[in-house]
Amino acid sequence: MRSNYGSCVFMMRRNEKFILYLLLYVDDILMASSDRQEIQKLKKKLNDEFEMMDLGNAKRIFGMDGYLRKVVERF
Fold it and tell me: What is the distance between the alpha carbons of residues 62 and 25, in angstroms, rounded to a whole number?
């Protein structure tokens, strides 16, 4: 389901609860969920359809790692 907040934000819902978020920007995907199995399932489905590389856990999102660090330290 596409989010109303942004055209590149998608959410997977199960039993009226959001279980996975997918953010898509050009050729990068960021997935977030409290259930790692849901992420693995979606990665498998996408990898079956598209050539993909898994870069592991996100360390930088849109170059904002330094900005986010400053915000966290301040608050």
Answer: 9
